[in-house]
Structure formats: structure tokens, C-alpha cells
Amino acid sequence: MSATMPETPVAAAGENQIEEKVAALDITQGQTTSVAASLRAKPDGAVKTPFVDPVPSAKPKEAVALTADQEAKYEEVLATVKTWTEIPSTKGKEGPIVDEEIMWLTRDCILRYLRATKWQPAEAAKRLLSTLTWRREFGLLELTPDHISPENETGKQIILGFDDEARPCHYLNPGRQNTESSHRQVEHLAYMLERVIDMMVPGQESICLLINFKSSKSRSNTSPPFAIAREVLNILQTHYPERLGRAALINIPFVVNMFLKLIMPFVDPLTREKLHFNEDLTKFVPKEQLWTDVGGAVEFEYDHEAYWPALNDLCKEKASERRVRWEAAGKHYGESELYLKGGDVPSLGQKVEPEVAVEAAAPVAAVAPEAAVEAVAPAAPVVPEAAIEAKTAVAPEAAVEAETPVAPAAGIENQKPETKETQA
Length: 424
Known about the structure:
Number of strands: 7
Organism: Pseudogymnoascus verrucosus
Number of helices: 17
Protein name: CRAL-TRIO domain-containing protein
GO molecular function: lipid binding; phosphatidylinositol transfer activity
Structural class: alpha/beta
Pfam family, one: CRAL_TRIO
GO cellular component, one term: cell periphery
Strand content: 5-15%
Distance between the termini: 31 Å
Number of domains: 3
């Protein structure tokens, strides 16, 4: 179950070569316009499709450097996940780890689990493996837009706009509930969480959750069923740690308000700072990207036939671009999410391998000719010139390369871009 898995080979290519690979695999080649470009152009009238970009002033916070101890703990977990050859399951879903799962094990993902476990490497690794098992058994990657579509026909969940730190805004609208309690409601939430993660811009790894308990003509009780709420809460806490950047609840009904008052004393102080109750949402979401239903300036109208395919096509395009970049760079464990999302940073192989190879080769190449001449000259002062040249030749290229191997994949993968710390 845990035999050592061979290292993913590092592509012996520089930055230009990797970018050429990305271009060669670019899914948008041959298309007149990308999905993102087409959605940036909003027609006159009500908005019916997602925003692609945050406002120019909205920027993710700068990443915070890890301490030496934190970096060492990250390396420990990274080394552990590289040994996983099989994903366990008690529901018949066990089997070899696949590319989608290796790609999910980014540097940022591992750090999120470390922060969630108070920097305990063994516990973080245990939870990471548990989540990989859950993703298989839940069938997360098998959920399709067609399967989930009936749950979202009234727009009870939408992804629209970004907050002032470029977090995508995920709206939950319980008043628009249109189905009876079922497992598909839970699948709906998990599916939408994956889509809001797809929508994250480079440098951002958390979401802005906006829950509007406003009642509707068809539904006055907007409190979710207890069993569904409990399962959803468990999924969020266990399998999406450190993903909540901010949560705002408005139009809170009496029952929910009483429940919140009871549990708030037990909520972690750092988590409590992320929660906002019945506040003016324009304090942290630009009005030009905030729905009028919650105090913004965006005249958004939920039209399922327009919104649903637009959201799914955009997320599919973004996911495909990340996959292309991951494959072109060498399919690393612990790859940078900033790189995968198209941020202005190199992949692991790009930024380390060429420098290591050149620095290692330089000393050998510079010393070899002089050393050979000095060793031969005293012993053979009258040897013909041709013989001297034969004895003092520079070491062949193959020999030099043999003494200066390129850094192995593990060494390269262990040098990652810095990332920031956030709390659950």
C-alpha cells in the first residue's frame, strides 16, 4: 500500500522550452475566442453570466515566508506523499494513485493541511490521504454539470464577482431552494466548491462565502435541514481546510440567529474574525461586483440557460489550462498553484535545474586542462607536441557531464515558491 513510488522525472528544459510545451498543448489554439474573453464582454441589460476577473484594485495579500521549521515540516510531508502508490478505500474505490490526484497534491495544498493541523506533519499527511480517499468515494471528479443542473435551476448557489482581496464570491441563497433533501444537495455544494476554486486568481486560495437567508414567495423557512447542514459542515472542515477567507450572513432568521449565539463562544478566535453578521457587504466587496440583492450595484438576473453553461465552460477552460501547465513542466508533486494558474512565477523545473547544472559543471571544466598540463610537463619535457596534446586534452563532454549530474527530481521539487499562512 505504501511502497516507494519512483520520482516523477524532471523535464530537462529551460523556461523557454517549457513555455513552448504549454503553447503546443494550449487548448485555446484554433478557437476564435476563449471562453474567458467572451464572458468579459458583458452585453447591455441585466448581467446573466459570471465575472471573469476582480476589479483592478482587488489584490490577494502578499505571501508570507515560511520559517525554517515550517519549511522542514513541509518537506517531511512532501516526502511522505511521494511514497503513496495506492489510495485506500473501504468502498471498492481503492487503486493506484492517478495524475489528477498527484496534481491535486500541490505545495499550497500540503501547506493548507499543515496549517489546519497546527503544523503536525504526521497528522497533515493522514488527513491528506483521507481526503484523497473521500474524493474517490464521494465521486467528486465524476460529478457532471448535467447531474447537478436540476439543483441549481433557481440559482440557489451562484458564483459572482470577487471581494476586495480578489476572493471569488460564492452565494448561498436558501430562499431559492427548489428540491427536497437528498444526497444530491450535498453533491451540489461540493461541486460548486470545486467551481469556485477553479475561479480563483493567481495568488488567492480562499473564498468569500455570502449567505443570504432572505425568504422567497415559494419558501419562507430558509433554515437548511439539520442532517444536510451537518454533512456539509463536516465536508468543509475536513476536506476543504483553510479555504474560507471570509463569510458573511445576512437576513438571518431567528432560529439561525439563536443557533449562532450558542456556538460562537466555542468558535476559534481566528475563525471568528472571518465571520460577519448582517453587515454592509460593500465594506469588503466592491459595489460594481456585488449583487443588488445584497446591497451592490450589479443588476444580476439568474437565467439558468445562460449562467449554467457559461460557468461550467469557463471553469473547464481554466482547469484544462492548469493541467496543460502541470504536464508541460514535468508533472511534479508539490507544484506551485501560483504557477499552475498562470502567475508570474516559474515551475519547479524552470527555476532550479538550469542553475544547479551550470554551477556544478563550472569548477570541473575550468580546472581540468591546467591540471593535466602540470602533471605531464615535468615527466616528459621532450615529448613531441602531438603526444603532449594527447596527454593534456580537456576531458570529453560526456565525462564532465557524468561528474556533474542534474539535480534529481526530489531536490528540485523541494525548492518551492513561498506561500502565505492563513487560518481555517
